[in-house]
Amino acid sequence: xxxxxxxxxxxxxxxxxxxxxxxxxxxxxxxxxxxxxxxxxxxxxxxxxxxxxxxxxxxxxxxxxxxxxxxxxxxxxxxxxxxxxxxxxxxxxxxxxxxxxxxxxxxxxxxxxxxxxxxxxxxxxxxxxxxxxxxxxxxxxxxxxxxxxxxxxxxxxxxxxxxxxxxxxxxxxxxxxx
Length: 178
Prior knowledge:
Layout: E1 3-17, E2 20-34, E3 37-49, H1 51-69, E4 75-80, H2 83-98, H3 112-122, E5 128-132, H4 140-159
Parallel strand pairs: 1-4, 4-5
Antiparallel strand pairs: 1-2, 2-3
Helix pairs in contact: 1-3
């Protein structure tokens, strides 16, 4: 039994124009370790997105990758510096699903399409754990994955190209408008 650990991150730029935040380019990235040894990394981006969407997509891409390379009895650990993302999958999503994908106050859930896609992928993983790591600190792998996401953001901005997992187009990316 192997332990696959994925460090994930997202980066995006939003600008404030007259009190309204407008989306700009973003990038996502993951680094994969198998039993503590770094074995791969991947990144991509989108010219029009938010940081939370990129954080979530990095998790989505990590689980896709895990499902392609791991065995059923292997463990999956997702390390994210996003409390939002970790809380979704450790605490909130189960209740949201029970309520028909609504918050407890009845309000809609932001980023629901990608959250549901991740939730569905998670059903194919027997042993999955989410770990919150401190961002922009002394965590070497968190800092490394952050740099990959920032480079991917710049590439998306410069090229206007959307890049998903395995360099594929993905309907979860690029469908948002201001």
